[in-house]
Amino acid sequence: MPVVTEASPIYGLAFESLVVRVARLLKPARIALTPPRPATMWRMSRAVASLLTCFLAASALAQAAIPLSEYQQRRAKLREDLKGAVILFGKPAPPDVDVNRFRQETNFYYLTGWMQPDARLLITHDDEILFLPHHNPRLETFTGKRASAEDADIRVVTGFAKTMPLEKFEEQVRHALDSGPEVYGLKSPEAEKLAPLLAFRDLLPAGPLIGKLRIKKSPAEIEELQRAADVSVEAHLAAWKQMKPGAFEFNAQAAFTEVMMKNGCLGYAYPPIIGSGPNSTVLHYEANSRKMDRGEVVVIDAAAECDAYASDITRTIPVSGKFSDRQLEIYEIVLGAQKAAIAAVKPGAKFYGDGSITKIAQDYINSHGKDKHGEPLGKYFTHGLGHPVGLDVHDAGRLEPVLEEGMVLTIEPGIYIPEESIGVRIEDVLLVTKDGAKVLSGSLPKEPGDVERALGQ
Ligand SMILES: [Mn+2]
User: How many angstroms does the Cα of residue 1 sit away from the middle of ligand 1?
Assistant: First the structure.
C-alpha cells in the first residue's frame, strides 16, 4: 500500500488479532493450578478435556504471541533515559460495542501487549503502572470476562508489578510529574483532560520517542512479520486462481480472505486494493466491485494482519494470464526499479534524498521507456518508494537518517498511466540484515514469466 506522504501512519484500520486478545485473556496461573479432582469418570474426563484444551490453546499461543517479558524489556528501554513521565491512554471501548471492533492504539500495545479497552499507562524512570477499569459484570456478559486491577492473578496476566484501578490515575500522575521536567503523551480526546494537571508544562509528543524503539524489530517481531508475509503470499496465490475475464475483483478478495482467515489471521492489515483496468491506476482504490476483462492488468495490494503485526504486498498480474507487449514493457521497468532499489538496501544506506534508494528507483524509471507523448515515465511514479512495517502497515519510526539492521520496510515502485489504463505496482516487505536485505515476501512470484506460469496453472 503506497504512502501518500512519507511515513504517515494513516492506515490503522486493521482489526485486532483474536489470537493476541485471547492470549491476554488467558490466565496461565489458573491453567496450571486446575487439578483433575478425583471424581467420577465423567468428571475426570471433562477435567482432562478442559486441561487439554487449555494446554493446546496455550501451546499454540506460546508460538504466536510475543512473551510479556519482551514488553517489559521495551518499557525498561524507554525508561532508561527518561527525564519525566510518559502518559499513554489505551483506546476506549468503541462507542457502540455491538457493531465496532476494538483495536488497541499501537504505541500502547507495543509497550504493554494489552488488548482490552480503557487502560492507561504511566511510566517514569523508576516506575511503571498499568491502570485498569473495575469489573463491569453487565458489560462482561456482552464482551466476555475482562481483567481488573483487583484480580488475584493480575500480575501474571499483565506482566506489570503495579496495576491500579483508574481512580488512582490522577494522584499517580501528579506524583510522576515530580520525577522530571518532561511529560510525553499522544494526542487523543482522553489526553486533553491532562491539560489542567500540566498547567505550566507542554505535553511533548511520545510518538517519536516510542518510534525510535519501534523502528528496529526484535527477533520475535521479525518472526511475526515473516508469518504475516507468508500467510499473505499464500492468500495472494489463492486470489490469482480467480483471475479470468468476466470474474469480479471481489472474487479475488474472497479467495484472499478465505486463506487469510484459515491461517488464523482474522483481519486485513489495510483495506485490500484489487484494481483492474482503469482501476489499476487508482492508488487507494478499494471498491473492488468491477468486472475484469480480457487484456487488462489488475493490481492486487493486500495483506493480512497476524497476531497484531501487518504485512504489505502488491503484485500486478494480467487478467487473462498473459501480459500484452506494452503491459510487459511497463511491468519490466517497475520490476527493474524495484530490483535496483532492493539491491541497494543495507545498513548505512540512505532511503531519502540525494544518493538514496528512492533516487535509484526514480532514476531507473526516468531512464527507461516513454509515455505515448515521448515523455519519460518518472512523473507516473506518484508515491513514496516505501515505509516501515510493523504493528501498523505504515509503522511508527523513521527510515532516517540511514537504514539500520533490524528495520522492516517496503520497496514499492509503481507506474500509473491513466491514459493507457495501465497501472503497475510491485511491492515487497524487506528486513534489513547485517549486510543487505532479506525479502520476507520473496516467495510470491514476480518475474513476468513466473507470474504467467502461476496464472496458467
Ligand atoms: Mn506499502
Answer: 3
Question: What is the Å distance from ligand 1's center to 383 Cα?
Answer: 10
Same domain, 271 and 417: yes
- pTM score, two decimals? 0.86
Three-state SS for 196-263 is HHHCCCCCEEHHHHHHHHHCECCHHHHHHHHHHHHHHHHHHHHHHCCCCCCCEHHHHHHHHHHHHHHC
Q: What is the end-to-end Cα distance of the chain in Å, rounded? A: 27
Q: Which residue do the cell numbers 487507494 mark?
A: 284
Q: Which domain holds residue 50?
A: 15-59
**CATH code for the domain in which residue 91 is found:** 3.40.350.10
How close is the Cα of 14 to the center of ligand 1, in Å? 14
For residues 183 and 166, the answer to whether their CB atoms sit within 8 Å is: no
User: What does the pLDDT look like over 129-160, one tens digit per residue?
Assistant: 999 999 999 989 988 999 999 999 999 999 99
Cα of 103 to ligand 1 centre, how many Å?
20
Place of cell 541497494: 344
Ranking 13-17, 96-100, 381-385 by mean pLDDT, the lowest is 13-17
CA of 4 to the centre of ligand 1 (A): 10
406 and 293 part of one domain: yes
Please indicate, yes or no, if residue 433 is contained in any of the structural domains.
yes
> Is 38 in the same domain as 154?
no
Q: Which of 214, 242, 272 is the last residue of a domain?
A: 214
pLDDT at residue 98 in the model:
56
Report how far residue 88's alpha carbon sits from residue 100's, in angstroms, rounded to the nearest whole number: 22
Tally of domains within the chain? 3
Q: Mark which of 187, 214, 241 sits at the end of a domain.
A: 214
